[in-house]
Amino acid sequence: MHTLKNSNGMTVEIIELGATVISVSVPDRDGKQADVIVGFDNPDDYKDNTVYFGTIAGRYANRIAEGKFTLDGQTYQLTINNPPNHLHGGINGLHTKTWQVENKMPQQIKLSCSSPDGEDGYPGNVTVFVTYTVTDNNALKIDYEAVTDAPTIMNLTNHCYFNLSAGEQDTILDHQVFIDADCYTPVDENSIPTGELADVMDTPMDFRNSKKAGLQINDKFEQLEFGHGYDHNFVLNNFNGEVRKAASVYDEKSGRLLEVFTDQPGIQFYSGNFLEGVKGKRDTICKKRAGLCLEAQLFPDSPNRDNFSDAVITEKDKYKQTTLYKFSTK
Asked: Is 23 exposed, middle or buried (0-12, 13-18, 19+ CB in 10 A)?
């Protein structure tokens, strides 16, 4: 386990398995430090991390329909680990790998791992680098890089589940959520985007004005029924490849505010719909919606959608992505 700490006392703990963030301790409005990450008590428990607590997801984060995509005229079949789809890189995804430490400083660590040609069906030998930095203004900055020796697809994200109450509340339903998105990508019954960019106006998907995560989560709305809650990609406004504010979460009781900044076109808002029964921290059993994820990434199933962002990288490219999770109080 590696601990990063800034001069304000913010601490982040990371393990090499999955390059996983296992804790983030930040103050509430009274200055009390506490861990706002949902996960396991014992680092060994991350060996069977079926809910992807805190891990790096990839090679391709999110879903690919039936695990198939075509690249340069050749169709590739990926492993099916979320029937009938491929999810988060498959059976041997980056979350299963023991990453190597490239370098480490008090506020920063850089890790790397490799995925061989053909693993889980992906073409190309790929090396992935992730750098975690705890900044002086209480942000966890994540810089991603990847290189390949053959054309392939790449989409990386971090899968931290946040509960800003640090366990004081057993769900995130009272957390105030803001997402800077006029549109989202509707999905079918298998959680695969239809290809449409749908307006959030007058739907439960509208988070342009901050509202409680639980306010409309049980509405009779087909998309919420398909996802058993929120598990949808939002089309972020003002995408130009530069880092900008994309979302925020606020817990009124603790005063903790989380702001998400990213250079990605989409963010997957997942309301922890399948956490019920998972044994979590402090020897507790997680309730449904014990934590929420804001996963900055390309749109799901992009390799099969011409109107979505291009997910292909080649030997001449380098995949790059930056996302920050910034903490403060109000």
From this structure: middle
